[in-house]
Amino acid sequence: MRRVSLLRLIAVFTWTGLSSLGGGRSAYFHDALVRRRGWIRHDEFVQDFTLSQVLPGPNFSNLAVALGYRLAGMAGGVWGLLAIVLPGALILVGAAALYLHGAFGGSTLLIRSLSAAVVGLVLVTTLRIMRGSLRGGRGIVVAAITFLAVGPLRLPTVGVVLVMAAVSLALHWAAPAPPASTQPTEKRSPGEIC
Fold first, then answer.
1. Which residues have C-beta within 8 Å of that of residue 42, sequence separation ≥ 6?
2. How far is 68 from 163, CA to CA, in rounded Å?
3. pLDDT at position 69, please?
4. Which of 54-63, 132-141, 154-163 has the lowest mean pLDDT?
């Protein structure tokens, strides 16, 4: 299963954890692992991102475990989590101590100004995930209904996700299989063995 050395994984995950901001931190993972290094494909990232969103716990930590496991097995999952969480946790403890002792006088204004940048990062992540996930009208309908149910209608998130997962599966199974003539075929050279 190991695709990436543990040392490289720890270095990349640590840097991602230290250099990423707010709710858009998944975009940093996407950039580091899919776009710049090509360690995983976009669809693999979307699968792990979806799993990290659905399971309990902090999404970014969940994503680090899923991606770490995919890239370097069990050790990758454990070290991926530590590399993401530990450096930021140490910085947060230091910043909290300084903040509580009055070292950051204008911190409220700084935090408010950064919130717009974080919203932009969340939007980038959302658009990237949409590109790989919403294929066809059924996916768009499921996403729209989920948005309306959890957002404006304020229905319980867990119930909506469970119902929409069942609806999504039913729509997938009910969809006709693509004709054999449109399915991609692999081209092999004459001497290539299956």
1. 30, 34, 128, 131, 132
2. 30
3. 96
4. 132-141
Using the 8-state DSSP alphabet, how is residue 26 labeled?
H
| 34 CB-near residues (< 8 Å, 6+ apart) | 40, 41, 42, 45
Reply yes or no on whether the pLDDT at 167 is more than 60. yes
Q: Say how far apart CA 93 and CA 23 lie, in whole Å.
A: 20
pLDDT at 112 over 90: no
Assess contact for 22 and 119: CB atoms under 8 A.
no
Residue type, position 60, single letter: F
d(CA 132, CA 127): 9
3-state secondary structure 65-90: HHHHHHHHHHHHHHHHHHHHHHHHHH
For residue 20, the number of C-alpha atoms closer than 13 Å in the C-beta half-sphere is 28
Tokens of 31: 């950039």
- Measured CA to CA, the distance from residue 132 to residue 35 in angstroms comes to 14
HSE toward the beta carbon, residue 5, CA cutoff 13 A: 3
Mean pLDDT confidence for 108-133: 75
Sign of the four-CA dihedral 106, 59, 12, 7: positive
Nearest one of 3, 24, 16, 2 to 81, comparing CA atoms: 16
Non-local CB neighbours of 171 within 8 Å, separated by 6+ positions: 138, 142
